[in-house]
Each structure stands twice: as structure tokens, then as C-alpha cells.
From TrEMBL:
E.C. code: 3.2.1.21
Signal peptide residue numbers: none
Gene Ontology MF term list: beta-glucosidase activity
Native species: Gordonia hydrophobica
Family to which the UniProt record says this protein belongs: Belongs to the glycosyl hydrolase 1 family.
Catalytic center residues: E354
Substrates-to-products reaction catalysed: Hydrolysis of terminal, non-reducing beta-D-glucosyl residues with release of beta-D-glucose
Record's keyword terms, sorted: Carbohydrate metabolism, Cellulose degradation, Glycosidase, Hydrolase, Polysaccharide degradation
This protein's name: Beta-glucosidase
Amino acid sequence: MPTSHDIPILPRPIRWSAATAAFQIEGARTAGGRGRSVWDDWVDTPGKVVDGSTADPGPDSYHRWREDVALAADLELDRYRFSISWTRVQPDGAGSPNPVGLDYYSRLVDDLLDAGVTPFPTLYHWDLPLPIHEAGGWLARDTAHRFADYTALVVDRLGDRVKHWYTINEPAMTTLQGYATGELAPGEVLLFDALPTAHHQLLAHGLATRVLRAAGAESVGIANNHTHVLPLHDDDAQAVAAYDLIHNRIFADPILTGAYPDLSSLGAAMPVHDGDLDVIAERPDFYAVNFYNPTTVTAPTGDDNPIPFDIVPTPGAPVTGFGPAWPIVPNTLRDLLLDFTARYPGMPPVIISENGASFPEPDRGVQPCDPDRIAYLDGHIRAVGEAITAGADVQEYTVWSLIDNFEWADGYTQRFGLVHVDFETSARMPKTSYDWYGRVIAENRA
């Protein structure tokens, strides 16, 4: 574990942030006229969440947002990344806005500004309104236009004070886990037939970008989940290329090059209409990367396997609370950033929009001591510094997450926070990683 005198110092100043998401921290699922999302259906279906939890009350940030603002201010964060719940703003995903929901986010924005922390909201973090899903969800092109309408409602209320925006969070995970394999809501198992959801999310991002810029936004971008792909064997180059295509390139290439990569190897094509790629490739002000771990792959087993790779444990790597699925190899973040810098010449500045890890902790008690999390963050921040030195234009680093939260299908069994939350009382208690991150921020400004 790094000592208090061994703080990572980056080669030049960057901004420092921490993140949360609405469904994971707000609780209050029936309060204030909020509608139902695909995740409400998921958590209300027995067996879908490993511990049977429902995201209520959890951190209860709908009622306790001032405590979260104080935690962000005490860290002296430059920015706080939070998400806006589409179902709080438009309970049915269409029509007039819900003033109670917009009032909540307006208070949060005002309190952040008063505390000296720049609000950096995400417009969509997986909570698709249920009526939109029932009308086709991200498989339907119309959802992109509904998202643009929702964006207009939000920026009309908040755009006088909020100037920096994320549009959509992790379209790759929505496509791959939500529609291809069914691991997350809405739980579809479509394999490669899920690929239209990638195009419609990217189109939604482009349409929302135009809405936000027309309203005076200063910076707009998308937060994509990316992974550095490693071969298990020397002859696994084909499997590496296939997984890199599916997880990384399908989501980055259209934004950064204006074209999709060749998908013929998958026997798939995107439902592109005339003009779509111009909308998608409207140059973002930043490109945001959520990074947690590398992915090791090998050639698939079985002659009838429709998937051109197998995902396997990363040899010799320590793991987070998720086990072998989340190996810890910090230098792969450096390698990913340098690969992207070389692959996409002239790409916009990069923001690390999520980076963090879950480790086992007691549910309650004394201040949690979390040396594993400190070591994880330390290694990845140093990897960012190495990437900057080698030429990557990284301008911001964001810890996931500010506070413990509802971790989707894993419920309350995984804790990512710098701040411990007692999920029975919603009480908050900073961990040792919170104090450490505060020192990182302070010493990198000295």
C-alpha cells in the first residue's frame, strides 16, 4: 500500500473528480412523481439481484444530496459527476417535464456551485423509461429522438448554470450486457442482433450534442467503457481483434473517425440512415473513457460457437471483489490510452470518467480501512501519468465512486465508494481512501 508520503504526482496539472449515478444512489423510487425504468422492473423481479435488494433506500441521495455535496467539497473536487434520471424528468419518457424532478436536480446544481464544485451531469446512465423500452427500447431508432427531446427539457432548466455535459454512459455495456447477453437490464439475449442498440445510442449522443450546443453548452462528450484486450496465447491475435472490435471500436470509431469498422466478420451491419454518421461524428469537446480492467481472450472452444473469442482469467493478476472477471493490471490503462492516441490521430482531449474497484468490507462499524482500493487507485493514477508523459492528452481523472451504492445486478454486495454507506440507515462515513484521494488532489495542486 502506498504511504502518505508516496502520493502519485502527475507530470502536469489535471482536473480531479468523483462520480455517482442516479439509480445507484438516489433511492426514493416512488417519490416525486418518478416513473419506472427498465431497472425498476429488473430489481422487482425475484432472482435478478443477487442479494434481493431493490436500490431502496440505499444512500438515499434524493433526500441526502447535501451530504454528498459536502463530501465532494471537502475533497476539493474540481467536478462532481452525477447522473440525471430520465424517469424523474419525464416519468413516461415523453411529454411534459416533471417539475418536482427538475427541482431536485436544480437544487443539487445550485448547492454544488455554492460549494465551489463544478456540476458535470450525465444525461443517461442506464435508466431507460419503461414505456420507451416497451416501444422497442434502444432497438428502436425513435428512442434516439426521444432522448434528444428529453435532453432539451433538461438543458432548458439547468443550462443557465450547467455548461459541461456527458450524454450517455457506457453504451457498450448496455449493448453487450443489456441486449446481447442479458446480464443486465433490460435482460435481452440477442447476441449480434443487439448491435442496432449501439448505433441508436450513438445517434442519441449526436442528437443530444446538437441540442446542448444550441443551448450554450461549453463542453459535451460521451462516456464509453473501454478495455485493453490481451491475448492468452501468442496465436490469439484473431480473438483479440474480434473482442477489440466488439467492445472498443464499434463505439469509438464512429465518433472519432466518422465510420464504423468493418463488421463483416460478425455477419452484421448497422442500421445507418443517410446523415447518421455526420450526426454521430460531430466532434466532441472531450472523449471520456471508463476503465476498470483489461480483458484476456483466447480462441473459442467448440466448432459451433457463434462468438469468435473466449474471455478467460488474466494469468497472474490480482482481482477485485468481483473475482477473475475484474483483474487488476494498472499499466493496461496506460497502454489503452496510448493505443487510442495512436489509433485516432487528432482525437479530442481525454477524460478518465470512471476508474475504481470494489473490495470486501464490513457493512458497518469503525472507519473502513481500504488499502486495496488505495493501491488500485494509486496504480491507475500513476498509469495516467505515464500516458501523459508518453503523449496522451488526459485532462481529468474521475474515481468511481464517491460513495458506496447499489451495484446493479450485484445489489449491495459490492462496494466501490470512497465513502462507506450503511445501507440500512444511509449514514455515510469516509474511508481511508477518501482521505488519501484528498491528499492526491491537494499535492497535485501544490
